[in-house]
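Q: Focus on the chain.
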Amino acid sequence: MKMPGNLMSISAGLILYIFSQQLAQAACSQPELAGTWYTYSMSVDSYAVYVSRTNRCKIKLNSTGSIVASKSSCKLRDYSGVFTVPVAGGDIKVKSNCSLNGNIKLITPDGISTVVMDYGTAAKDKQAFSVVGYDDNNPDFITHLNAVKR
């Protein structure tokens, strides 16, 4: 069966259009991450020198990916109980392929501690993300973090 040239061009154009729409929807942009995020994480010391802890934070991101410290805070739980930790700043950057990295600076009783986000990705709907990282003061203190946008 032979297809006329203009019908073949229209068919090819429709296929490209359909795929381009799917690819465009899968892409991420920095302003899409703006808003309030609730993070839940577990930090574990790979050498068992430090105590493991759970962390839950409310993180406010602006459209450039910077953390708004005055609208952000964390609660940490370790062997001694639950305590509130102020957020000093940081940023979370997303690439067009939805991979992300960044850091969250916390004011702990021991001073500034930065959770460095090595590798992560945003969900297709851009309403959640997961990352792995570490504490810059103790690189053996590894964190697995999940976040949900509200």
Remarks:
- The radius of gyration is 21 Å.
- Residues 11-24 have pLDDT under 50 and may be disordered.
- The longest strand covers residues 81-94.
- The chain is about 15% helix and 55% strand.
